[in-house]
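Supplementary notes for students who missed Thursday's class. We covered one full example, reproduced here. Read the sequence, then the structure, then the short commentary at the end.
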Amino acid sequence: VDRFRLAIPRQFEVTDVRCPSLVRWALENVPGEPRAVLVVTLREPTTETVVLNLSAVNNRAPGEGWSFPRVEPLDVVAQVSVVGLLAEDRLDVNSISSRELVAINQQVLRDALPESVFRAEPGSPRLRPVAAYYAPQAAYELSARFTKPPARIDVTSQLVLTLDNRHHRFRGGFTLVPEIEKLFAVEIAVPAGWHVHFPALRAALTE
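Structure (token representation):
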């Protein structure tokens, strides 16, 4: 053969296709069809094993009723797949349901992916493996529900109250550890009648 055809969910945009003997690739949209067809053309016909890598992006967040978007090779006698699911560390994944899939060790997924996938840039959310399966045939299904936990801040306080004949004085420090989301602002409740020294407060928050 000198070309391959794969069905791609229409909501995905193919961003990259790589193959050592690749000449060109093109996406064909058939009106009324829920999937587009990716056509990959090789430099010359071959009967050897061909390794084809592709990337596609869907910019919509997963909502209720999410199901795994299958990429299906066309014009083939049979197919087997390893199916993996990774999620950002700020998302909870639950209610995972599968059909015609055999659960396998998630380490298989980690070994198959570049280490750069799990090495997040500064300030970016990290990815973690959630599930991995072996699919012995094309007709498999995988669904899940994604939820975003509410933002929380763990606070450790150190407060010292000094009493004398003229003043009551508090000196305090706060260690703030945000969970899930980044911390951009903090509100601290102060009893009425107390005067806050803002320079000290700014310095403490900066540290």
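Commentary. The CA atoms of residues 159 and 172 lie 4 Å apart. The chain has a mean pLDDT of 84. If anything here is unclear, bring it to office hours.
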